[in-house]
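Ticket 4471: requesting a sanity check on a complex prediction with glycine. Repro inputs:
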Amino acid sequence: MNILLLGSGGREHAFARQLSQSSLCTKLFIAPGNAGTLQHGENIAIGVNDFSAIEQFVTVNNVELVVVGPEDPLVNGIYDYFLSKEALKNIPVIGPSKTGAQLEGSKAFAKQFMVRHNIPTAAYGEFTIETLEDGFDFIDEQVPPIVLKADGLAAGKGVLIVPDHGEAKEQLREMIEQNKFGKASATVVIEQFLKGIEFSVFVLTDGVNYKILPNAKDYKRIGEGDTGLNTGGMGCISPVPFVNDELMKKVEEQVIIPTINGLKQEGIVYKGFIYFGLMNVNGEPYVIEYNCRMGDPETEIVLPRIKTDLAELLLAVANGKLSEKQIEIDERAMATVIVASGGYPEDYEKGKLITFPTDVSSDTIIFHAGTKQQGESIVTNGGRVLAVSSFGNNIHEAVAKSNAVIEQIQFEGKYFRKDIGYEFR
Ligand code: AMP
Ligand code: GLY
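Returned structure tokens:
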């Protein structure tokens, strides 16, 4: 079977590695990919949102399975696009329908869905230009800090947590009246601040059945000790030590099952991954956000812990046969540490030559995120450059292995957090 994978980050390198190892995979194409995905397949210079170029490529190259990494093409409706074309409609796309992707594409949609299905989440209100004054009143009723969220996709920047009522009103005005996040903030969700510890749970579903994948906790801040600016993620660990069976049982009963059943009841087609961003509030799980895809860098530790053939699992998702599959998980702990360009998440330079250690133990996998092949060399091509994932008997050991390998990776401006998983060491 020929497989097309869409995306170009560390997540896609992790997918590419595992799909290429499948006995079902004849040829793997990655659009557009990076210097890491090149080790596992053929990179194709097509953008993830260029549906007509994807259509043509899939037809000419006998692609039989499409795996979507990032959220954009899903929110833009790639699943429905395939169904609408005679030549494509029998080629499965792993990822939800356009409506299903609204769980991530619209915070208001996600909140309404959770309310309809009694899924624990922060109390909220949603406001537009017509209801701006109501929004100010709603802010007055909140106990600070106040959480404001742009409804639509805002490249991970659309959530503001502000310390007082005055600033919250100012921000609400900027979001709605001055298009602070463009169209994404035409609607704003204001919600109750939840105090707790975050963790993430991932599920693969065929729309009826589901499999729970290894959980993870990510470290979003740029600085050690969780300080400084927010990033796409500077590292993560799996499994999360405080996520015990009791908490997972609550997650499954109160969050996962009502979500899958809710989608089914409402006739929303969903064959793909659901990422539950959760807050543990005194032992009770609350949904902070849904994502309609796998996380990055979470994928770089979640997938390597799955021993089951990934292409087989994804085909079972496409055929509605996930219940027939077992998922085998590697019991070892895993951590990934992001190696970033100096300056990230603000301005940084690209095109720096990367040198890699010649000998890396089989416990460590170097995933490429923002890299590019340039002749014989590999150069930096993004803020997050590499994700170095390691297995260990515990989190501490896994992080230490990744850190030791990163010490041997060189490029100008290299930066990484040495303290990933610090609370659990
Ligand atoms: P999101 O883009 O929805 O994941 O939000 C970004 C970050 O804001 C989350 O990872 C949380 O750290 C924080 N956050 C979002 N909503 C809340 C909330 N209701 N209470 C506390 N923190 C929140
Ligand atoms: N690491 C967070 C995300 O993928 O959304």
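Notes from triage: The chain has a mean pLDDT of 96. Leaving this open until the requester confirms.
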